[in-house]
Amino acid sequence: MPTPTAPSHSPTYSQPAAASAAPHVATAATGHSPITGGPRPVARLTVDERAYLDQNHGCYRCRTLNADHISRNCPRYLSPMGASATPSTPTSTAPAPRPGPRMVAAIRTFQETGDSTVFAGLSSDSEDDNDPSHAPHPFPPLPVSLAGAHGTLLASALVDSGSPQTFLSEDLVQRLGLERRALEQHSKYTLAMQNQVPTVFTCTHFVRVPLELANGLWAAGPTYAEVAPLGKDLAIILGGNFIYRHKMELGLFPQPHLTCKANPIHAIDLLALSSQPCAAARVAAIAPVSDDEEQLRLAALDHRLRAEFADRFPADIPPVHLYQSPVRHHIELDTPSTVVNLRGYPLPKKYREAWYLLLQEHLAAGRLRPSRSAYSSPSFIIPKKGCDVDPTIAPRWVNDYRELNKHTIKDRTPLPLPDDILSTCSNAQFWAKIDMTNSFFQTKMAEEDIHKTAVSTPWGLYEWTVMPMGLCNAPATHQRRVNEALQGLLGTICFVYLDDITIFADTLEEHKARVRQVLDALRRAELYCSPTKTNLAAAECSFLGHIINRAGVHADPKKIQRIEDWSLPKTVKELRGFLGLVQYLCKFIPGLAEHTATLTPLTRQGLSSIATLWTPNKVRHFKAIKAIVTSLDCLRPPDHSANAAPFWVMTDASNQGIGGVLLQGQEWKVARPIAYWSRQYIPAERNYPTHEQELLAIVEALKEWRIDLLGGHFHILTDHSTLEHFQTQRTVLSR
Length: 735
Known about the structure:
This is RNA-directed DNA polymerase. It is an enzyme of class 2 (transferase). Residues 363-548 form the Reverse transcriptase domain. It comes from Microbotryum silenes-dioicae. One of its GO terms (biological process) is proteolysis. The chain is α+β, with helices and mostly antiparallel strands. It has 5 domains: 1-133, no CATH class; 142-289, Beta Barrel (Cathepsin D, subunit A, domain 1); 312-550, Roll (HIV Type 1 Reverse Transcriptase, Chain A, domain 1), CATH 3.10.10.10; 554-631, no CATH class; 647-728, Roll (Ubiquitin-like (UB roll)), CATH 3.10.20.370. Helices cover 22% and strands 23% of the residues. It contains 16 helices and 31 strands. Strands 3-4-9-5-8-7 form a 6-stranded mixed beta barrel. The relative contact order is 0.07.
């Protein structure tokens, strides 16, 4: 089995055989000196090699990982080059290992080569290391017995010295009813099995499980294992930490055996325990994966998928005459005789040329055409950032259809709830985000309604042949079209919010298949995607103003930066903008209402300038909000699985308002936050006695998180002890 990754100084390989000029890391099997007959002198350890041996409980002298001895008592002493080889007296009573290629504990490196993953070893200078033969008996699985809340199960364990940790499959954890505990630091690993593409997974939880041999001859006692998606054929991997803790030695000669020095048994005959090979014996390696390696792999996958679906990522959407989709947008008026005819707006001369070029572009593509309609709505342009210095940046065309929308019968097609999308997507390991190019322009107008879209410009009256921006029912039409295109996939592998599509998966192979499914569906529906705003493979995704990754849901750093950079508002409009942006992040900010309650009175009608109304107390609360957003919590999605930890609802009331936090965990002290909530009192609630305000906080919090709490177990925590007697209170007010 290959061992964990090598120190950082290791060379890069294009193929395993291309290890030219590789620095050697000697082992106990590097051969014997032809002069002295003793161990061959080896190079001194580098700083990186010493650190690596320290991390893996290795011996400085024989260079063995997970050694059962310390360096000064090494039974297989390797002298540094230039020093005399004076092996110490062996202290172990176990049979000496047979030198050979299968006993080499070489430090190995993990690397990328195109689409495949190569595990290349740093070979020693022994000719025996080039022996292409294989061990006559590969290590078969070890039958073990595991105990949990749901009983005892037998499983096949792989004893793998190349694995840095012990892993237990998610399926076995669920079947045993083991309690999951969150890891303080999440770790990424790659699992490589023979004849299979290596997969990357992240471990976020661990379990404690009693383990013993199936025949009862030896018990390991409570064993800590990280929960991993190992698949159906692989139940448990006993890694290097397990081997070191129980002082195990693995041998292949004369047949596979396992010696445990912490127990008075001589050896465990693996062939006698199990003569049936299993998929566990085909594991090549489990090794930590660096962020850089994963980024390279995801970037390569993104490139391949784009090439495969290149027709979905054009530089611009095709001309209208190439559209074949039967979908059309209709404008139904409440009074058919209504005609909207409004005067146009004056045009700033600075942007006249840019608007004219944009008009010609739409005319050439067939999206606009000259009109004789009785309808006329105003239109204007808004320059984009950088438009002044880069003439290639086209301005944004805006149609003022407010009057037309007043008389339009509304299409009530619902948009998905952002919280539902974020909650589901954040449980994945890989994401893709697809942004559709000029999404509204990809749907044609119904021929009988084209004249209603007429807009006035400085160069005359024009009407849209495609669905323009500004129509009240345009979002509903587009959402319905994409929903129909992705029917059967929504909610299971992807979500759609207008022109944004997010795809999520637990494994890289699953992710590739799901992205192909979505792109195939978009191809059939003739929908096009933006090549610049799309990412088909990522370990992090920006969606609906939030950042989703394996740690949970984060506030968008851009929004946080805007709040931090916001100067003290001088007008009501500026303050409302600030409070609106802060409110968007309210579920990340504990006790927000305590601060906004002081600022809200400044937004009342009748005020224009508020520059002179800022008191020291108001300024303090304004700065407090800006300070809070610099250290927002990462929110975890709620877990509703069968073995999920209970929920905790913590509430409190103050002089300004009420608030609470929803957590999940075995104990409230270590539970992780799911969401924060707070609001100000309405005038009547300010007059409630304290115990009723505290009870109000509980009631309102349960309403806020009703969807998450229904059907599960939860606890309510409050700092007001009198509420414990609420159920037995004899007189209760009607409210």
